[in-house]
Amino acid sequence: MTLATWLIAGTLKGGLATLLVWGADRLASSHMRARSRRGWWLLIPITFLIPVHVTLPAGMSLSVPAFVQRDATHVFTTLAAPGPRLELSRASGPELVIPWLALLWLTGVIASLLAVLVPTWRAHRAWSRARLSTEPAFLTLLEDAKAIAGVTAPIGLVVSASISAPALLGWLRPRLLLPRSVADTATRPELKAIFLHELAHFKTLDIPTHWFFVLTRAVHWFNPLAYFAVMGWARYREEAADELAICWLNEPTAVTYGEVLLRTLGQCSGGAPPSGALAIGESINTLKRRMHMIRTYSSKSPRGWLAAAFALALAAGTGLLPAPAEEDAVAAAKKEATEAMQPWLTEIDAGDYAKSWDDASAGFQKAVTSERWVGMAQGVRMPLGQLVNREPSSAYYTTSIPVAGGKMLQGEFVVAQFKTSFENLKFAVETVTFEKDAGGAWKASGYLIKPGP
Q: Does this model's pTM top 0.85?
């Protein structure tokens, strides 16, 4: 899979996963707890970054559509029609666009990552040097909260007037940041609830998961749904942390926790938290949703089995559960076709062009006579000199290829590219198309030579 096809497949399947997960989460949020729905959200970055090719029976496919393949791979731009096109030509304008698009994409990825990494690095550098709190009351309460949450990792506590809201910064060397205003005015139960909320983020690996979403947004910076997925995850993880903290508090209702959350946010300065930190404060709209969740917490059911079943359904719907037998069939077809290409290319290398025509497909022979093929081959291959080296570069299986008139020829095809070197042309790219005939044999249906990069 080339870079272009990987990006296109990822953006299509990732966008679909985002819409499905967002819709399912909204429908189930009033009945099912967030902890049970967590697996749904993890499907989004996986689908964006690891799009799985799925082949269906009877020639159907959930891979990138043919019209996208033609633009995204050099195979379909060079083989505009089946048949024995053999020529030596310079790259055309559309083919030269691909490197520039790749450069533009890479520039966007780097810019997106730097916009997050630089301020996060600065925040970590600043707060890792901050003096940790040594106040026994705070440290004892934090250790009690860690025991309730089942967290054994060392977590430093920083209390400072420059902190805008309680937040968790870092995962390998975590720091729990607490505003001085909250530390001085909050009661022991209120501080316990705040600590449990931030420990919930640590316990459920929200920080590394957040970076997984950040990477998704950077790689697919051109896709608005990637940004939508990150914003949706940011809202969801706070709701999930609230639920887990309520569960750890083991209170009959969640009203007390909701009151603590409102009082805590009322004491915060309202400024932005350090970059990379997960803060307890959110926007007003998000806070309303969290308050609604807290008010209805006792009426919700975990329904873990239902959440798992729906996660599997979403994975299947977004192509994350390919059928192994179908994938094996595609791999076998590519293997058989590429193996059949070797002796056919050997005939051309030896100058036995008439024999290569005899061994080609019926469509190949119909498109050009043996005499014309021999003349074409001699005119192009002989000036190149003897073969020096040939290495396989890529192979692609498809059930249709574009033909003249904008139509698609149906069948089973394998298009392979080879990086080849000749005596008089050091870098060349050979594109070979083989099709499966009625008898099940793979035979040549297209051949093209172009100068390599």
A: no
